[in-house]
């Protein structure tokens, strides 16, 4: 794959020279082989000094024409600095190349490295990572063009290309796929368990009469109290659920805008919780703009088919996309409108005989990356992106792909809640390590380049530090009967003020009273707003 840098950009590495044979072949063409020092120029390993022969020619010319001495000195100085920078880039690239594998390598600490040393280093730290064919990669604007989130940005293009390689790694065996699926399911359940334990401690503090000071804790308690009250009020809840879709008026929200003049800085916004039914997927959708000036969420509920050698496979899809940054609404809408195109392409890649777990796992990972990489932020709004929580129902299986801090859980007929995704926060240790590995850093507010999520689609302003690869979980439904099973998905506007078990309890009790999915979703959005959620709220409740 040939990647052309944009005008004014440094040359971008076009291929990974990871094969030992390539370096050994290179050593044949240099007289100092194999001890010649490596450098990385225009994306390729080379040996020797930058401008070596041209520098010698200039020195000879300066001997006979002294007036050229200043020019020659400047040129030789520049060549020396370029050589040193490219040698260090070669060392850094070798380290990144192996760091990005699944092994734990021994780091190169030298500022320069010889061909022989590089060959031995690669042999000692073999990468066993496989990637999708490079011809199938979607190149993000940070690499494909002269794209900058800010004029002063000067991203490391070698690291950008390394990060792109990381995005397109694939699973090649069923055993590795199953191990990863189990790991992610365990992580989601552990997060659910810890959240429930923390909330139980909070309830005990409240019952003991202790004052709850933290705003975040008070919101959790308020949501629980209001949801319990609503469930216990038979008349109120029955009136609400008589409507299949509609709008519930909320209090006006007083939004304070800073003004340079002395005009009244207070603006009043009418707020409502809107809810409706998506018949194609038997989903109820609830929306609330909340305390934000605009709605940055998007919801997708649909069905599509995939062609395999064994015939068509119908897939039911529900998804929640939560945009962030100035232009977040454009990013979430883009993801909603483009994710199915990339899913179909990846699921049908290679003309599969059928959709097995390896095929589906890779398709979900790569389709999210494709969607994010194909997004170009709107003019003047470079710092935006979106989360994505997408669930595919394929036969008896639910496939959950989560990117960012939206969430999904499964509710069975008895009211048991099983969380199906893990919120990806920058402050969580494993996400923090991944961000730092990709050249990013977490600021004192727990954010990555201003974003409060560890992973997203289209967030090019972080220059690859936030991966676009979702965490994937598979859950098999009972084949004999799915009556009473519900899937609940929501953005962090809901789950900032309520944990999965509390939301699940409300959904279960509401469903027992024959409430519609639309009514439940709308009521959850309203409760989140009333519990002081500071974000947009979107909820999808789907019967399985």
Features:
39% helix; alpha+beta; Phosphatase 2c, domain 1; disordered N terminus; elongated; 15 helices
Task: Write a structural description.
This protein is an alpha+beta fold and 544 residues long. The protein folds into 2 domains: 20-169, no CATH class; 171-254 and 261-543, 4-Layer Sandwich (Phosphatase 2c, domain 1), CATH 3.60.40. It is 39% helix and 21% strand. The protein is built from 15 helices and 17 strands. Strand 11 (388-394) and strand 12 form a beta hairpin. The longest helix is centred in the middle third of the chain and has 34 residues, at 174-207. The protein is elongated. The protein starts with 19 loop residues before the first helix and ends with a strand.
Q: Tell me the number of structural domains.
A: 2
Q: Report the portion of residues in β strands.
A: 15-25%
Helix- and strand-based class?
A: alpha+beta
* CATH top level class name of the largest domain: Alpha Beta
CATH topology of the largest domain: Phosphatase 2c, domain 1
Shape from CA axes?
elongated
CA(first)-CA(last) distance? 43 Å
Number of contiguous helices: 15
The second-level CATH architecture of the largest domain is 4-Layer Sandwich
Mean pLDDT, as a whole number? 86
Q: How many strands, what sense, and barrel or not for the largest sheet? A: 7 strands, antiparallel
Helix content: 25-40%
Uncertain stretches: 1-18, 255-263
**Rg from C-alpha positions?**
27 Å
Number of strands: 17
Physical arrangement of strands within the biggest beta sheet: 5-6-7-17-16-13-14
CATH superfamily caption of the largest domain: PPM-type phosphatase domain
């Amino acid at each position: 794959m040939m990647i052309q840098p944009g005008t004014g950009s440094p040359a971008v590495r076009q291929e990974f020279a990871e094969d030992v044979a390539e370096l050994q072949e290179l050593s044949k063409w240099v007289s100092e082989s194999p001890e010649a020092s490596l450098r990385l120029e225009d994306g390729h390993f080379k040996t020797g000094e930058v401008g070596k022969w041209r520098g010698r020619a200039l020195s000879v010319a300066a001997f006979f024409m002294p007036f050229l001495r200043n020019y020659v000195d400047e040129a030789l100085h520049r060549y020396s600095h370029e050589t040193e920078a490219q040698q260090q880039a070669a060392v850094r690239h070798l380290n990144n190349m192996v760091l990005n594998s699944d092994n734990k390598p021994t780091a190169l600490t030298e500022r320069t490295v010889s061909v022989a040393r590089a060959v031995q280093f690669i042999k000692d730290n073999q990468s066993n990572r496989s990637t999708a064919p490079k011809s199938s990669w979607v190149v993000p604007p940070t690499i494909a063009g002269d794209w900058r989130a800010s004029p002063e940005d000067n991203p490391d293009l070698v690291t950008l290309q390394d990060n792109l390689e990381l995005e397109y790694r694939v699973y090649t065996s069923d055993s590795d796929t199953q191990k990863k699926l189990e790991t992610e399911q365990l992580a989601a359940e552990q997060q659910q368990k810890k959240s429930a334990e923390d909330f139980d401690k909070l309830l005990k503090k409240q019952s003991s009469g202790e004052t709850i000071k933290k705003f975040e804790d008070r919101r959790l308690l308020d949501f629980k109290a209001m949801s319990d009250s609503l469930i216990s009020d038979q008349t109120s809840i029955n009136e609400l659920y008589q409507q299949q879709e509609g709008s519930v008026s909320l209090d006006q929200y007083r939004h304070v805008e800073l003004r340079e003049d002395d005009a009244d800085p207070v603006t009043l916004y009418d707020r409502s919780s809107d809810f409706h039914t998506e018949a194609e997927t038997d989903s109820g959708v609830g929306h609330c703009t909340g305390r934000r000036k605009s709605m940055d969420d998007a919801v997708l509920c649909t069905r599509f088919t995939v062609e395999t050698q064994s015939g068509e496979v119908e897939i039911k899809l529900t998804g929640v996309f939560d945009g962030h940054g100035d232009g977040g609404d454009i990013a979430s809408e883009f993801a909603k409108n483009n994710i199915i195109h990339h899913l179909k392409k990846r699921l049908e890649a290679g003309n599969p005989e059928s959709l097995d777990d390896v095929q589906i796992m890779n398709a979900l990972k790569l389709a999210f990356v494709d969607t994010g990489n194909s997004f170009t932020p709107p003019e003047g709004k470079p710092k935006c992106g979106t989360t994505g929580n997408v669930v595919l129902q394929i036969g008896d299986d639910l496939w959950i792909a989560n990117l960012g801090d939206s969430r999904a859980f499964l509710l069975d007929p008895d009211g048991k809640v099983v969380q199906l995704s893990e919120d990806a926060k920058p402050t969580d240790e494993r996400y923090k390590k991944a961000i730092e590995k990709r050249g990013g850093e977490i600021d004192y507010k727990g954010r990555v380049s201003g974003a409060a999520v560890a992973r997203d689609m289209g967030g090019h302003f972080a220059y690859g530090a936030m991966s676009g690869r979702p965490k994937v979980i598979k859950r098999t439904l009972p084949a004999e009967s799915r009556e009473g099973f519900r899937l609940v998905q929501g953005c962090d506007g809901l789950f900032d003020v309520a944990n999965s078990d509390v939301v699940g309890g409300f959904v279960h009790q509401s469903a027992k009273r024959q409430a519609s999915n639309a009514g439940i979703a709308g009521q959850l959005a309203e409760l989140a707003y009333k519990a002081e959620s500071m974000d947009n709220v979107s909820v999808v409740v789907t019967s399985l």
